[in-house]
Automatic annotation (TrEMBL):
BP terms from Gene Ontology: regulation of transcription by RNA polymerase II
Protein name: CMTA1 protein
Any one Gene Ontology molecular-function term assigned to this protein's record: transcription coregulator activity
Organism of derivation: Urocynchramus pylzowi
Cellular component GO terms held in the UniProt record: nucleus
Length: 128
């Protein structure tokens, strides 16, 4: 993994962690829930925002790209698929692309648009 030194940006450290997790054989991105089923759990404070929503809202373009690569590697993980789906909407009916655009994160928005152009057709909360 790259960029793990003490002077590294937070985004670079998160990307390095994701890349290390991607390199683990058989890691599917799941954890066992209380019912014994495989799931990723969010607290209510996330308001339906996935890891990709959060990366986009922060403008972490490198993390968006790392998540795109991870999704391509972990096609067998439904939980990871939902967490890193560029078309997923949160409780505000916003996609990761909408968050990147609304907060002025052009590079993250461009990467999300190249990842899946269908995100441009998802209506915002006002139906636009």
């Amino acid at each position: 993994p790259r960029a793990q030194g003490p002077g590294s940006s937070f985004e670079a450290r998160v990307v390095a962690i994701c890349e290390a997790m991607m390199a683990r054989p058989g890691w599917s991105g799941t954890s066992l829930g209380t019912s014994g089923t495989s799931m990723l759990a969010h607290g209510v404070t996330f308001r339906g925002m996935t890891l990709l929503h959060l990366a986009a809202a922060q403008g972490y373009a490198s993390l968006v790209e790392a998540l795109r690569r991870w999704r391509a590697l972990a096609v067998e993980s439904l939980e990871l698929e939902q967490e890193i789906d560029p078309l997923n909407v949160d409780h505000f009916s916003c996609t990761p692309l909408m968050w990147a655009c609304a907060l002025g994160h052009r590079e993250a928005a461009e990467r999300l648009c190249r990842w899946d152009r269908r995100a441009l057709a998802v209506p915002d909360p006002l139906g636009r």
